[in-house]
Amino acid sequence: MVTPLMPRQPVPALDVNTVGGDSWSLEDQHPQNFTMVVFYRGYHCPICRNYLTELNRLAEDFAAKGVSVLALSSDTEERATAVKNEWELPNITIGYGLTAQQVKDWGLYTSAGKGKTSIGVEEPTVFSEPAIYLVRPDGTLYWGNVSTMPFARPHFKEMLGALDFVLKNDYPARGELI
């Protein structure tokens, strides 16, 4: 059973390796406003390619609003490096090696691989479905969106517009009641 993260509550720890050899820890992030963690399905997913390409294009806009970004999957280092290089994503940090425990801790859905995708890349045996979280500098959840499918994800342009409103109005996290 997937347990959702709750707004205004601390998010789980997150420590991963990134393409280029650096390690990344959520605890070490100190953005002005938010850390955005984008969980993507992996190298096999053509929708992820388009999605992360859009994020890469808008990365400077997020940075200008005080938002640091990590895109993360359960891909191996080799596949994550292919994502970074082949998908031409110089503006975003790509993490890899998301573990089954991290998937569970972050309330992500998982799927079983079904062979090659439409782009001819083999799906991993098990992988997580997409999610996006905005985490405040104090480590609490501000906003989250978790999906069971690869499509119908939040649009980054809309998120940028929403951030303008959020920051201007000191808008509180919502959805904290069960």
Write a brief structural summary.
By secondary structure, this protein is α+β, with helices and mostly antiparallel strands. Helices cover about 30% and strands about 20% of the residues. The chain is globular, with a radius of gyration of 15 Å.
Secondary-structure blueprint of this entry?
Layout (H helix, E strand, L loop, with lengths): L14 E4 L4 E3 L8 E6 L6 H19 L2 E6 L4 H10 L6 E4 L3 H6 L4 E3 L13 E3 L2 E5 L5 E6 L9 H14 L9
Parallel strand pairs: 3-4, 4-5
Antiparallel strand pairs: 1-2, 1-5, 3-8, 6-7, 8-9
> What is the averaged pLDDT score?
96
CATH fold field value? Glutaredoxin
Strand content: 15-25%
- In the CATH hierarchy, what is the architecture at level 2? 3-Layer(aba) Sandwich
Percent range of helical residues? 25-40%
Shape, principal axes of CA atoms:
globular
Order of helices and strands: EEEHEHEHEEEEH
The CATH class label is Alpha Beta
The CATH superfamily is known as Glutaredoxin
When the domains are counted, the total is 1
Strand order of the largest sheet: 2-1-5-4-3-8-9
Specify Rg, calculated over alpha carbons: 15 Å
Category by helix and strand content: alpha+beta
* Largest sheet, strands/sense/barrel: 7 strands, mixed
